[in-house]
Amino acid sequence: MNIFLRCGLVAIAAFACAMAGEAIHDGFPVYVSHSGELIKLISSLIGTLFAIVLGLLISSSYTTFNNHQADFNAMATAAANIDLLLKLYPQQSASLRPQLLATIDRVLGRYWPEKSRQRQQDVNYHFLNDDIAAMVNINNTFQAIDHVSRDDINAMRQFSNQFVAIQTNIIRSLSNQVPSLLLVIVFGWACLLFFLYGIFGSGSAFEIFFLFLGAIAIASANFLILELTHPYQGMFKVSSAAFDLLHAAIVAEQQVAREQDR
Description:
Pfam families: Bestrophin-like. By secondary structure, the chain is mainly α. It is 79% helix and 0% strand.
């Protein structure tokens, strides 16, 4: 379901519960006045639970977002180190740098489809097949280069493994989203809280306006959680700057090399 639609439903549900509370206040004022203290205690309990769990959800979602950014930067660093090793043997590795560039293109298209005009797809382990094949081929060809040092071979193997392992970790993390049932429970508390707020309301237009603003605030919290746990789509995205710079550098060097060969 679209994130904006889900957030809109949360706002509508919270506001509707507040209006239901206002209706009960107007219909049963005697019962409300007799149970006022108990209702206040319950609303305080629910409000505390909601604030704690919501804060933890937003904090963990933001941590997940930052972890994705760190993983992606580390993966770009591994690719840059692979490129540096290839440049140590420019003649023998001339066919390998285009393979590395194609791998970078696939990564950018996979997580930022707008860069290659691709359709947004759910990322899964199937997408790693081409990247793994490219890394295996680069390693095997690199090892066969004459006079390549053992340290360079080990470094190439290390950075290639790191590139694949980090991307595997990213895909695994993307598959571990916040459980929908947990969000339903937490924002169900919000609806109940607004219902209790409505019971103590006076039904004035001024009060209803602020209840509406509160419902929007609740929906915005849901929006933050959903956006931060989907870091490669939506409004909040991790930056692709590290790979963009590496891609641009490799392309520029290849253009210079072609001009020199003319």
